[in-house]
UniProtKB/TrEMBL annotation:
<keyword id="KW-0949">S-adenosyl-L-methionine</keyword>
<feature type="binding site">
    <location>
        <position position="106"/>
    </location>
    <ligand>
        <name>S-adenosyl-L-methionine</name>
    </ligand>
</feature>
<feature type="binding site">
    <location>
        <position position="180"/>
    </location>
    <ligand>
        <name>S-adenosyl-L-methionine</name>
    </ligand>
</feature>
<feature type="coiled-coil region">
    <location>
        <begin position="19"/>
        <end position="50"/>
    </location>
</feature>
<comment type="pathway">
    <text>tRNA modification; N(7)-methylguanine-tRNA biosynthesis.</text>
</comment>
<dbReference type="GO" id="GO:0043527">
    <property type="term" value="C:tRNA methyltransferase complex"/>
</dbReference>
<feature type="binding site">
    <location>
        <position position="214"/>
    </location>
    <ligand>
        <name>substrate</name>
    </ligand>
</feature>
<feature type="binding site">
    <location>
        <position position="131"/>
    </location>
    <ligand>
        <name>S-adenosyl-L-methionine</name>
    </ligand>
</feature>
<keyword id="KW-0489">Methyltransferase</keyword>
<comment type="function">
    <text>Catalyzes the formation of N(7)-methylguanine at position 46 (m7G46) in tRNA.</text>
</comment>
<keyword id="KW-0175">Coiled coil</keyword>
<dbReference type="InterPro" id="IPR029063">
    <property type="entry name" value="SAM-dependent_MTases_sf"/>
</dbReference>
<keyword id="KW-0808">Transferase</keyword>
<dbReference type="InterPro" id="IPR055361">
    <property type="entry name" value="tRNA_methyltr_TrmB_bact"/>
</dbReference>
<dbReference type="GO" id="GO:0008176">
    <property type="term" value="F:tRNA (guanine(46)-N7)-methyltransferase activity"/>
</dbReference>
<dbReference type="InterPro" id="IPR003358">
    <property type="entry name" value="tRNA_(Gua-N-7)_MeTrfase_Trmb"/>
</dbReference>
<feature type="binding site">
    <location>
        <begin position="253"/>
        <end position="256"/>
    </location>
    <ligand>
        <name>substrate</name>
    </ligand>
</feature>
């Protein structure tokens, strides 16, 4: 039977409040857990400082860090965050994967579901996935390690820096799934003329950019943009991917699965081929 006897304690703001002994016990348990977590995180932060991992992300060391920064150390074969190490593989990614298979790039991979499923399905392809958030990088690396994949790598890099670490004609295809449409600030979109200028350099002739979005205007704008480009052509597009001939081969992203479970809006899809 729950103990409902009241006791008086001092609250966070110094005021006196009365709570039950059961509530006090519950609070003590929560405090104990939080104290343990603080201790663990402090130890991890100490390791980050000792190994100077912080210098890859910040100008000076801190007392506390995102806990997933520490976990990144556990997946050196699946995850790169050191810009120098990443850039040194520019033009040599087949050496990293130790084969001559085609390399595909995903920009903004989230927690890796899409890229991991691709890597499982197409063992004769290599995959490089870009993401900035520590947690998502770690989750993607964990999924890859669990499946013992050898054809996938997660990199903490921005899309606009791809020329720093991807060589000429090194990429066979690029995936961009559900990027921010930047309504009212369309110049910030990841798919723009500047992106295609970079793809002119890194993507092989005949390579394909695969684009998915739930945003009608973004879909229309990309189609119009490609029509103006001399080196690219739209080889396939649909306003309803999941009711198209491409439905069976479609691999859903985390966002896509969540979106479909909550909304009825169609997913738009475009394939853009580099023709020169």
């Amino acid at each position: 039977m729950e103990n409902n006897n009241k006791i008086e304690i001092i609250g966070k703001n110094g005021q006196k409040i009365k709570i039950t002994e059961a509530e006090q016990e519950r609070r003590n348990k929560i405090k104990k857990v939080n104290d343990e977590l603080k201790k663990i995180n402090a130890e991890k932060s100490k390791i980050i400082n000792e190994k100077e991992i912080w210098k890859y992300f910040f100008e000076k060391p801190k007392k506390n860090y995102n806990k997933y920064m520490y976990e990144m150390l556990e997946f050196p074969e699946y995850l790169m965050y050191n810009n120098k190490d990443v850039d040194e593989y520019c033009g040599k990614w087949n050496e990293f994967f130790q084969n001559n298979n085609d390399i595909y790039l995903e920009i903004g991979c989230g927690s890796g579901n899409f890229t991991v499923k691709n890597a499982q399905k197409f063992k004769d392809r290599n995959y490089i996935a870009l993401e900035l958030r520590f947690k998502r990088l770690v989750l993607g690396a964990k999924k890859s390690k669990k499946r013992n994949l050898s054809n996938i790598l997660f990199i903490r890099k921005r899309a606009e820096t791809i020329l720093d670490f991807i060589g000429e004609n090194e990429i066979a295809g690029v995936y961009i799934n559900f990027p921010d449409p930047w309504e009212g600030e369309e110049k910030k979109r990841v798919i723009n003329e500047s992106l295609f200028a970079r793809l002119d350099i890194i993507m092989k002739s005949g390579g394909v950019l695969f684009f998915k979005t739930d945003h009608e205007q973004y879909y229309e704008d990309v189609l119009e943009l490609v029509d103006r480009l001399a080196n690219y052509e739209t080889v396939y597009h649909t306003r309803d991917l999941h009711n198209s001939e491409k439905s069976d081969e479609n691999i859903k992203t985390e966002f896509e699965e969540m979106f479909l479970s909550k909304h009825s809006m169609n997913i738009k899809y475009i394939e853009i081929k580099k023709v020169k």
